[in-house]
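INFO  loader      accepted 1 record
INFO  loader      residues=409
INFO  predictor   begin
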Amino acid sequence: YLNKNKPLKQINQIRSELKEIRKKYASLKALEETTERPYFLWHFYFKDVFDKGGFDIVIGNPPYGACYPEKYKEYFIDKYESAKTKDVTIENKTIRLKGSLDTFSLFIDKSIDIMNNKSFFAFIVPLAITSSDSMTSLHHKIFQKCDTIKVSSYSNRPRKIFDSADQRVSIILASKNGSKIKRLYTTKVNKRYESTTIKDVINNLSYVDSIEFVKYGRIPKVGTSIELKILRKLFSSGTSLRDLVNVESGLPVYYRTSGGRYYNIVTNFPTNSSKENSILIERKYKDVVAALLSSNLYFWFYHIYSNNLDLKTYELNIFPIPVENLTQSKIDDVEKYYDAYLKDLHRHSKIKTVNYAHVSEYREYYARHSKHIIDKIDLAIKDVYGLNDEEMEFIINYDIEFRTDSIEE
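INFO  predictor   done
INFO  writer      dumping tokens
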């Protein structure tokens, strides 16, 4: 405020101060432009903000996978916790955290650093934030600083959530107060038809606290209480698929590493797909495992922990398989339906001619035509997992509007 009795004197003093600030600004700007590091002088440009502890709110849609000079990587790894790969001890267990150099992860990391302890952030980022080993360092930092986190997730099929971006995304909101995480509210992966508006999607969002089901680099994408009940039953098993892997004498189960948006194609024989991989399973359980990975139950589980496009070894290994409940008669039932499923899958398949390096043709499968048999596999394993009628109905009908119409796989 100007002193009305001495306005010119005050104005000249302000001009002098501004002149000195411009000089300082120019020298600092030159430092930023010539430095070998990606350097921004937050505390200078926003001095008034940091005098009060930092920003109250940070909102953004940071660049995903943006390019930057190779020389910056060393700086990011040195200065950003989310970029470091390191060992930490959590509840007396040593865990190796993996870092990410993706720009969206670095943006979130820096945001936490420039916020005060009564603040909030909100970011639209790739779905990978919920489903990648490389997110473990970022998760650790967020979970140590923010006691309440909300994550809603969205597919880009059948219709994009944001018309200008063909991305599967999550919106992460968190309150930073310096306390460890206490609540993690999540949704399922929300999808929309051509006739569905963004408002329709928003109005139908459903959140649940799924903190007990966080896995390594994975934030569970569930949004209903019945899903929490099913997960509790699944994880009550003491064994998982990892326990049935036998790399020395096991037999291969084949699966597609990508493209399983509405169905996972899992067979006990090779299909010559360029996206095919395999795992070696103990002989006794080979077809049972293949059947379980073809089930509606695994389709639902896969969507909870994957990026909804790629099928990674981790999402296979953590799938619970209660071997103690797999009696021989139950194994026979499951294998009977799986055999019928494979025959029906073949009946609806088509041969595709290609010009790949080692493949001239492959068989393309349309599993939606065989869903009625997949449902029988699920009914056969209902008691194995201790699921009741309501829970099994939910599993069989999960995303059914996207799995039974004319949408191509």
